[in-house]
Amino acid sequence: LPLEKAVANDDQPHLVKVFFSWDTPIGRGRAIGGGMPSWLSAVVGSWQVSGILNYYSGTPISITTSTSPLAGVWNGVALRGNIVSSDMKNESFQRGDFNFGNTADPMNTYLNKAAFQDPAPLTLGNAAPYLSQVRNFGTISENLSLQKVVRFGEKFRFQLRGDFLNAFNRPQWGGLQTNVTNPLFGQITSVSGQRSIQLGTRLDF
């Protein structure tokens, strides 16, 4: 029963989300270039930069093994793995060395495989439901937007904008295999989070 005391599966110790919006001080009547020609101000002036910054800790992981300690009889939770070492991470794992072409490459091994074992028959394993000592990878992502609004008289407003989702193209590693009986146990098997750019215009009247 003491093993049941564990963090929740969605536990994230640190979570920061920042929103900002900044009107650039460039253009006619502004701090920079206040006397510039109107045509030049229409091109380089009155731009607005905004963004949403996301920085999250990773969620805990759950180590599992065979589906049941006694097939056909046991009606409890899935069998958990045994933890035999406190060094649960593979210290040689480097994110920048991830092999995209072969997810089975040993270089993609995130967990220390020697720290976990398949429990003996008729035992449940000593791993807690969710481990806070080792976690999935967190989220680091910046979404930026650049926009400009041009007014035509009192009735018309034209907006030009560009949105840069995951602007710095930060990869998100995932697909961690946590079943100790799987040949790919402890390895990262997927990468997502590529940069996405979208451009748009809008006319209000």
List keywords for this structure.
205 residues; mainly beta; two-stranded antiparallel sheet; 1 helix; 34% strand
What does this structure look like?
Strands 1-2-7-8-11 form a five-stranded antiparallel beta sheet, with no helix packed on it. It has a two-stranded antiparallel ribbon with strand order 3-6. Strands 4-5 form a two-stranded antiparallel sheet. The N and C termini lie far apart (66 Å). The protein contains one helix and eleven strands, in the order βαββββββββββ. The protein has one helix at residues 38-44, and strands at residues 15-23, 47-56, 60-61, 82-83, 116-117, 131-135, 139-152, 156-165, 172-174, 190-192, 196-204. With 205 residues, it is mostly beta strands.
Task: Quickly describe the structure.
Helices cover 3% and strands 34% of the residues. It is mainly beta.
For the largest sheet, list the strands in their spatial order. Answer: 1-2-7-8-11
Q: What is the end-to-end distance?
A: 66 Å
Based on helices, strands and strand pairing, what is the structural class? mainly beta
* Succession of helices and strands: EHEEEEEEEEEE
